Every structure is written in structure tokens, then in C-alpha cells.
Amino acid sequence: MVHITRRAAVSQSAMIGGAIAAVVALAVGALLLANTFMAQQVADDALRLDKAQEALAANELTVAALSQALLLTEDLFLGVADEATAQKALDEAHRRVAGLQRSSDELLAIEGLDDSMLSGILASTIDVASSVVSQLDEGDAGTASRTLTSGLVHFENLRDQVSAIRDESRASIDASGGIAGQSGSTVAFLVALLIPALAIVGYRWIAQNQVQVAEVELDARLEAEQEITRSKDEFIANVSHELRTPLTSIFGLSELLLEEGLVDPESSIDLLALINKEATELTRMVEDILVLARAEGGSLTYQVEQGNVLAEVEDYLNSLVDRSGITVEFEEMEAWLDRARFRHIIRNLISNAQVHGGPEIRILGSAERDDISVTVADNGNGIADAERGRLFSAYFHQGEDPLTRGTLGMGLAAVKALARGMNGDVRYERVGGWTKFIVSLPIRMPDGSSMPTDLSQVA
Predict the structure, then answer these.
(1) Which pTM value belongs to this model?
(2) Which of 5, 146, 183, 273 is most deeply packed, by most CB within 10 A?
(3) Which CATH architecture has domain 303-442?
(4) In 10 A of CB 359, how many CB atoms?
(5) What is the CATH number of domain 1-210?
(6) Helix (H) or strand (E) holding 173
(7) Are residues 410 and 383 in contact, defined by beta-carbon separation less than 8 angstroms?
(8) What is the pLDDT of residues 420-437, one digit of tens each?
């Protein structure tokens, strides 16, 4: 009877524990599903905002080009302008009208956009612009002037409609950022809830660096606008593509938790571990994005102080679930560093070696007169000679290369930015079958005095 009672108690405790684990898993799954949806919404709003900005710029440039072409055609008739100049302005007007059509069509093509009113306004605006250039082609400047003057209201209506879309998208992004900012977590895998807010920070950094349409020659303005658009679209495309992979994994695992969590609590633990792994990878990606954004914007800050290099390395390694295959081969030494930034460097280099390198990883340290060197080496295949010059470039992504396959291409760029921010640097070497990333940090303090490289020398 005693044994039966104990077994019943154990069974009841197991059921209660399993139920609690399942409830927690379901709650986590629901939060992650909601957050995944919000992340996609932010990406859609960012794309809509981007295309609206392009359409607004194209609208203003079209009006300017039409006015310029009309003015030069009238001057040609009066004999104060040459035919080549007038024709060049007319050709530019044709290109601007086509550009307005293209950018507006791209905005209309966005899924979920209510385009009923915008389509009508755009059609009227394009009709006016096409009529003006056709009349100018025929040399009828008087009719073209009347057409443009009476048709300016259509350009203004298009500007107002697209501005409303832009403002609505911006407000939606700001609202999503406020929600994301309130979803803090004390559990490692819940850091995925912060991804939309961090994505917004990254997008705002991009938006703040947009070049304003200036009063310069039309050809120069067009070239600058196209270059900015290409860079921005490439950045958003890379971030959307790479973050979607772990987000999709989290989404799928969360669905399994929602469907099977109460049935099999043990499987829930395994699924939670996988979610935690994906969330950790997302955290690394987002932190790399923020480091590069702040470094390029000049807002990356450091808390530099005397630090024990070996202790920082060991602290990070002790936090790893699996550190098999990693050996540390250097004595205790000190350097002038920011502890959090240094751990970020070590994390990125070890993660790079684990994902893209060989089975053996060595962390080596040495001290010279003015600086210390920390080397993360692995016995993998390395990188092609032709790509080494771009290895530390921001957003470098070579899909078939073993060192960058399946990443945003920002991890090594973040390492270089952080090392240089601490008055150090990083370089790549391939020696004797080993791939080496060597980080150097200064031994000397800002006042010029040197600090001991061996802790035994510290009083």
C-alpha cells in the first residue's frame, strides 16, 4: 500500500510538472507566433514606406523635368536656346514620366495596398504628363503650357495620396516598435520577441541616411537616387531573407508545441531547446546588424577598461552548451578592452569556426610590446584567395563560400568594427592547413602608460 501510494504521488507530481511545462510551452509558442506575425508586418510596412518614398521623389522630379522642357522649348522658339539643349531637356522629361509610371506601378504591386483611388489618380497624372511631352514633341509649347498648368492638380493629388500611404506605413512601424519594446524577457529563447523592434532600429538607421532630393542637375540626382535605392533594397532583401530562416523554424516548432505540448511534455522540452537555439542565432544576427549600423552612424559606444583576456574567453566558453573540440592555449594576460564588446568578438569568431570551419578549434594568445593578440583557429578549408579582400566588408555574402554560406555576411564585419573601436584590429591568415582570425588589442592605457601582460606582475 505504501509503495502504491508513493507511485501514485510520483505519477501525480510528474503529471503536474508535465502540465506546467506544457502550459509554459504553449504560452511561449503563442508569444512566438504573435511575434513572428509582427515581424512580417514590419517588413511589409518597411517595403511599403520605401516604395512610397520612391514614388514621391519620382513625382517631384517629373514636374521639374516637364517644367524645364517646356521652358527650353519656349526659349528655342524665341531663339534664346539651342535645339540640342531643348532636346536633351525633352528626353529627360520622357525618362522622368517613365520613371514615375514605374515607381508608382511598384507601389501598386505591393500586396495588401488599397489601390482603387491611387490607380485613378495615377492614370490621370500619367495622361497629363504624356500629353505635355507629346505636345512638346510636336513643338506646340503653348498647348503644352496650358496642359501642364491645368494638370498640376493631378500631380498634387498623387503626392497627397502617396504621402498618406507613407505616413500610414511609418505610423504602423512606430506602433509595432512600441509593442516590441514592451515584450522583454528573462528567458534566452524569448529574445526573439525583440527582433521586430531591433529590425525597426535597423530600418530607421537606413532611413536616416537617405539622401534628400537636392537642387542639382537632373542626371546627377537620378544617379544618386538609383544608387541609394539599390543599396537599401539589397540590405532589406538580405535581412528579410536571412532572418526568415530561423523565424520559420521558430514558427514551425511553436506550432508543434501548440499541437502536441500537452500530449508529450518530454518532447516539449526538446522543442524548447531547439527554439532557444534558433532564438540565440537570431540574437547574434540582430546584434551584428546594430553594431554595424551604429558604427557607421558614429554612435557605437565603449566602456574600455583594464581586463583579463583569458578570463573573458573562459567566461564565454563556460556559457556554451557544447564546447567540445575547443582548446585554449595561452597564459593569463591583460589588455585595454570593453568586456562586452570583446565577448561579442570571441562569440562571432567561435561561431564562425563552428559553423564553417573544421572539427578542431584553438584559441591562442600572445603578448608583444604594445599589444596582445588573440587567435581563433580551425582546421577547415579556409576561403578562396580571390575573396579575402572583401572578407571583412559589411554585407559581404558569397553563397558558395564555406566561410560565409548561410549568413548575413555581417559577423566578421562586426568583429572588425568592434576591434577597431577599441584601438585594435583583426586580420585573416591561412597557415599550415589552419584558418586563423587574429584580433589585436592595445596593452597601453589611454594616458600612454603600459599595463602588465602577466597578472603575477599586478600588485
Answers:
(1) 0.46
(2) 183
(3) 2-Layer Sandwich (3.30)
(4) 10
(5) 1.20.1330
(6) helix 141-181
(7) no
(8) 999 999 999 999 999 999
